[in-house]
Design goal:
The chain is α+β, with helices and mostly antiparallel strands. Strands 7, 8, 9, 10, 11, 12, 13, 14 and 15 form a 9-stranded mixed beta sheet that branches. A 6-stranded antiparallel beta sheet has the order 2-1-6-5-3-4. Strand 11, helix 6 and strand 12 form a beta-alpha-beta unit. The structure holds N-(5'-phosphopyridoxyl)-D-alanine. N-(5'-phosphopyridoxyl)-D-alanine binds next to helix 6 and strand 13.
């Protein structure tokens, strides 16, 4: 018996999980997803993930497969059945199964699948030592605000980073950092946290949204603006955020040491604050 996963209405062993070859997710990458962190068997930041999901679905005119409450229940049941303490729940909704035509099929039920991934989130070596990243051109489409399952550009970019021994790739467009291949990008300049404003160019990170709220509450200054990779090279600190890393300090960008090669005080403090607050959102 492997993991118990959820496929279109049923909880099944992962070996028995099947989707149609005509699923629009499989044929066109026509679907959206969310990754929600799990701490102590509880879903973290569930509400803002649901809000972002609702927006992604709306932008693509994909119907909800069930109610929000039912979707949360699927997440919680997967956590229970897999006895998950720490890690995440991945879920995706595709436009459904239809013969291959580009336009959206009518009256096709959407397909919901979900599974758990066990992963240490709190006590990681990367968080203690900080990580190395490299930069690369942003080769993605122009609606990065939608959390689409079409992630080939991100997979290619992450592979380029891995080949250079880096944890993450920061993508560059028009001379500015957009974001990481699967994370939001930040630098610290003159004691202020700098991150790019939301637009179609980046995914509105849930961890970003919550972190900015906690920063505001604790008086950490924010400078929401574009920044270049050259500015990042000279920054006091750099870090990234996502549901699978929380706040992760960066100690090297393109082979240049940042902050003396040690996780900086702002990134360390924000990681502590985020994790402390994250526990409180658990459901
Ligand atoms: N990725 N930007 C991109 C391109 C992402 O793929 C992600 C998340 C983020 C951070 O968003 P959040 O804070 O809501 O996790 C930013 C997830 C974790 C993934 O694809 O696995």
């Amino acid at each position: 018996m492997g993991r118990t996963v959820y496929v279109d209405g049923a909880y099944v062993d992962e070996a028995d999980a099947k989707v149609s070859i005509f699923d629009r997710g499989y044929l066109f990458g026509d679907g959206v997803y969310e990754v929600t962190a799990v701490l102590g068997g509880k879903l973290i930041d569930a509400e803002p993930h649901l809000e972002r999901l609702d927006r992604s679905l709306g932008e693509l005119e994909i119907a909800w497969p069930c109610s929000r409450e039912e979707l949360i229940e699927v997440h919680r049941e997967l956590i229970r059945r897999n006895d998950l303490d720490q890690g995440g729940v991945y879920m995706q909704i595709t436009r459904g199964v239809a013969d291959r035509e580009f336009y959206y099929p009518e009256n096709t039920p959407t397909v919901l699948t979900a599974f758990t991934q066990a992963r240490e989130l709190l006590d990681t070596t990367n968080a203690k030592t900080g990580v190395k990243i490299v930069s690369m051109p942003d080769i993605r489409w122009q609606r990065r605000d939608i959390k689409s399952i079409a992630l080939l550009a991100q997979a290619m970019s992450k592979q380029i980073a891995k080949a250079q021994g880096a944890f993450e790739g920061w993508m560059i467009e028009d001379g500015h950092v957009t974001e990481g291949t699967s994370s939001t990008s930040y630098i610290v300049k003159d004691g202020k946290v700098v991150t790019r404003p939301l637009s179609n160019a980046v995914l509105p990170g849930v961890t970003r949204r919550m972190l900015l709220r906690y920063m505001d509450e604790t008086g950490v200054e924010l400078d929401e603006r574009l920044f270049s990779i050259d500015e990042a090279y000279g920054a006091e600190e750099a870090f990234l955020t996502s549901a699978s890393t929380f706040v992760m300090p960066i100690v090297e960008i393109d082979g240049r040491q940042i902050g003396g090669g040690q996780p900086g005080p702002v990134a360390r403090r924000l990681r502590e604050i985020y994790i402390e607050e994250a526990w409180k959102t658990g459901i």
